[in-house]
Amino acid sequence: QVRLVESGGGLAQTGSSLRLSCVVSGRSIRQYQMAWFRQAPGKEREFVAAISWSGVTTNYADSVKGRFTISRDNAQNTVYLQMDSLKSEDTAVYYCAADRTDYPDDALTWIYEYDYWGQGTQVTVSS
């Protein structure tokens, strides 16, 4: 059983930074592409960032490109999302997701690609 637990969310001011962590248990993430999605109130869950299990490939939503950075530490079975220059529109519940793949450079953005999900962590950005 693969379990994902997010942490690091909270209340932040506009322009500040937060770092989210996603710790995975039950399996090594070495052959898993990992991603972050988010869901704001009244909106559908949307893609934020993804990273291949090789770490070579990353993809970002246009809305966060240049501000957010996804990274992973396979030895610690952990994925991170560094969020800088936060905006009020970044307010959402952030979810970590995992998908096992045979392709080391896959970092897919399609929500239905991902089989395992965490419970989410709330990020609220206010001025």
Features of the shown structure:
mainly beta; globular; 50% strand; 11 strands
Description:
The model has no long low-confidence stretch (mean pLDDT 96). The strands form two sheets. Strands 2, 4, 5, 6, 9, 10 and 11 form a seven-stranded mixed beta sheet that branches. By secondary structure, the chain is mainly β. A hairpin with a 4-residue loop joins strand 7 and strand 8. It is built from no helices and eleven strands. The radius of gyration is 13 Å and the shape is globular.
Largest sheet: 7 strands, mixed
Give the helix tally. Answer: 0
On the 0-100 scale, what is the average pLDDT?
A: 96
> What are the secondary-structure elements, in order, as H or E?
EEEEEEEEEEE
Q: Tell me, what's the shape?
A: globular
Distance between the termini: 40 Å
Share of helix, binned: under 10%
Output the radius of gyration: 13 Å
Number of strands: 11
Q: Label the structural class.
A: mainly beta
Beta-strand proportion: over 45%
Taking pLDDT < 50 over at least 5 consecutive residues as the criterion, the unreliable ranges are none
Oligomeric form: single chain
